[in-house]
Automatic annotation (TrEMBL):
It comes from the Bacteria. It comes from Isoptericola luteus. This is ATP-binding cassette domain-containing protein. Residues 6-246 form the ABC transporter domain. It holds the Pfam family NIL. InterPro entries: AAA+_ATPase, ABC_transporter-like_ATP-bd, ABC_transporter-like_CS, ACT-like_dom_sf, MetN_ABC, MetN_ABC_transporter-like, NIL_domain, P-loop_NTPase. One of its GO terms (molecular function) is ATP binding.
Length: 371
């Protein structure tokens, strides 16, 4: 197990509020971020996630507990002693924060100038970075002439200029369209895999976590309420706030209105079954249907990737030799499916059911593909 490069130990950040009330933006957080991983911190607005990441480079100072970065406890360090720590941390932002009066090359060179790099070495490093992020042809262009995706690539190149060990990405894709978001996330994966840089992604978008993160912490009211492997958090969320986030990223489960349409179109038993990479449920579903002599036709659903592993659900119409949905073989098949995976039984048009949703996500919150 890689050693932690960032450790929070009962870390707290309290701001004064109106009329003397305190705002506990970060409230006793304890967690480790491992060297070399892509770690996601997700939460709704006001959850404390951006404040948490600002504790890492001491842009905000803790009011309790400790933050240790690459072996250095930041508690009480002077600005002078913080400089070498911050030199090992790059940061990219939602609004890019580029210098409008400088060209692309000038923006990337700026931290190198501050660090005292000689001109020739700066020029070579800038050329190398712009090539890495895919905008070498934009070196002499000013930010006003760039698209949002190009601006974020400049921001990433600038953040990498001084060879940091850690890259903090605070809502780095929130201002981008979906296609550009995909490209920027792919670039962050390259940064992580090819350069070995630990990436901490702060986001309110579960799709970002699904696409790139190894592990994720879910924050609410300044606390970490759920922490784990990204696949585990998606496939078996424990907290209501996590389930709400998962529902925004997985488009695989039918809403009540869709269920009503499916019952009207199909005479058989309608069930939704979970598909994941842990239980091998896809193969088990096929085996169960064959074992009980029934047919299962996919009428809705979708499979996506979470942390590069398949996850989702399929909604099936189950029939036995064209018989009605209440055939004993269908009943036995549904019971067999429950033994191998999560199942939501929607019944039939003649006998509709309102089954409880499985652990993978609440029925009615997720939209998918109606077949």
């Amino acid at each position: 197990m890689p050693a932690p490069i960032i450790s929070f130990r009962e870390a707290a950040k309290i701001f004064p509020g109106r009329k003397g009330a305190e705002v506990r933006a970060v409230d006793g957080v304890t967690l480790d971020i491992r060297a070399g991983e892509i770690f996601g911190v997700i939460g709704y607005s006001g959850a404390g996630k951006s404040t948490l990441v600002r504790l890492v480079n001491a842009l905000e100072r803790t009011t309790g507990g400790a933050v240790v970065v690459d072996g250095t406890d930041l508690t009480g360090l002077s600005e002078a002693r913080l400089r070498p720590v911050r030199a090992g941390i790059g940061m990219i932002f939602q609004q890019f924060n580029l210098l409008s009066s400088r060209t692309v090359a000038g923006n990337v060179a700026y931290p190198l100038e501050v660090a005292g790099w000689p001109r020739a070495r700066r020029r070579e490093r800038v050329r190398e970075l712009l090539d890495f992020v895919g905008i070498a042809d934009k070196a002499d262009v000013y930010p006003a002439k760039l698209s949002g995706g190009q601006k974020q690539r400049v921001g990433i190149a600038r953040a990498l200029a001084t060879n940091p060990k850690i890259l903090l990405a605070d809502e780095a894709t929130s201002a981008l369209d979906p296609e550009t978001t995909h490209d920027v996330l792919a670039l962050l994966q390259r940064v992580n895999r090819e350069l070995g840089i630990t990436v901490v992604v702060i986001t309110h978008e579960m799709d970002v976590v699904r696409s790139v993160c190894d592990r994720v912490a879910v924050m609410e009211h300044g606390k970490v309420v759920e922490l784990g492997d990204a696949y585990q958090v998606f496939s078996a969320p424990r907290q209501d706030v996590t389930r709400r986030f998962v529902s925004t990223a997985l488009k695989d489960r039918p809403s009540p209105a869709v269920i009503a349409r499916l019952r009207a179109r199909h005479t058989g038993r309608i069930v939704t079954v979970g598909v994941d990479d842990v239980s091998g449920s896809s193969a088990h579903v096929t085996h169960v249907l064959r074992e009980h002599g029934v047919d299962g036709t996919i009428v809705y659903g979708g499979i996506t990737e979470v942390a590069e592993r398949p996850y989702g659900s399929l909604t099936l119409e189950i029939v036995a030799d064209g018989a009605a949905g209440d055939d004993p073989r269908v009943e036995a098949a549904v019971a067999g499916l429950r033994a191998v995976t999560d199942v939501v039984d929607h019944g039939t048009a003649r006998d509709p059911l309102d089954d409880a949703a499985p652990s993978g996500g609440p029925t009615g919150l997720l939209e998918g593909n109606d077949l």
